[in-house]
Amino acid sequence: MGVMGVHSVGGSVIYDCLVAGLKYIFLVGGFAESPMLQLEMRNAFSDVATILVPTEAGLTILKGQQRCTFRGAGAM
Hints:
Layout: H1 3-17, E1 24-26, H2 35-45, E2 50-52, H3 60-70
Parallel strand pairs: 1-2
Helix pairs in contact: 1-2
């Protein structure tokens, strides 16, 4: 999916969420580490929400899954 795909798919989802009071967009996973994706997301959506990219965005999902597993919530 190219930059236009981000705008078309992401835009429709994000603007639908504005009704629910969307304030933050967390970019996680391998693609979240892409400077180009981060820039495009900020250009496209920073007027409606704060774009957050955690340190080691590519490992965020894995770390969250491990924490849930170790707390006894089970694997997701």
